[in-house]
Amino acid sequence: MTKISPKNIAEAVYEATEGKSGEELELAIKRSAQILKDKRMLGKSDEVLNVLSNIIDKKTGTIRAKITTAKNIKGEEKSKLENEIKERYKAQNVISEFFEKEELLGGMRVEVGDEVLDSTYSHKLHELEKFLMQRK
Fold first, then answer.
1. Is the pLDDT higher at 5 or at 68?
2. Alpha carbon distance 61, 106 (integer Å)
3. Does residue 58 contact residue 14 with C-beta atoms inside 8 Å?
4. 1, pLDDT greater than 90
5. HSE (CB half, 13 Å, CA atoms) of 71?
6. 123 Cβ partners below 8 Å, 6+ apart?
7. Please, which residues have CB within 8 angstroms of residue 27's CB and are 6 or more apart in sequence?
8. Residue 3 banded pLDDT, cuts 50, 70, 90
9. How many Å separate Cα 97 from the centre of its chain?
10. Which residues does 32 contact at the CB level (< 8 Å), separation at least 6?
11. pLDDT tens track for 9-55
């Protein structure tokens, strides 16, 4: 017997809903939810949604970025940063979440998938501290 994984369910949901809209889409989603219930996988629904989100992002050329700064950045700066991320990752769409943490002191931390670009002052100070400790 083949074990059904959240990835299998997510791929099946994507295929069942791709290109559909309106009542047809609603019916496909209801059937997918019923399969999760029947297979006793409702507890895995968050994992299924994460995998499904990744599938959709790949198909649409979308990347998700978490951007953390010491101070709030304004709309124009946000747009400029999103465009830079879009170019760097050759994405068609960027979905960004912005966070503010004073303890970063300055600079910014950008997370895209598994990649982290950390140019915060607190990170640089930490790296300097590590370097100086090795020199003793």
1. 68
2. 31
3. no
4. no
5. 7
6. 104, 107, 109
7. none
8. confident
9. 9
10. 9, 12, 13, 16, 17
11. 899 999 999 999 999 999 999 998 898 899 888 898 899 999 999 99
- CA dihedral for 15, 21, 23, 26, sign (positive or negative): positive
**Count, residues in the chain:** 136
Q: Which residue has the tokens 């940063």?
A: 81
Structure tokens at 76: 């124009």
Cβ–Cβ < 8 Å for 67, 81: yes
HEC assignment per residue over 42-66: HHHHHHHHHHHHHHHHHHHCEEEEE
Count CA atoms within 13 Å of residue 110 on its CB side.
Answer: 18
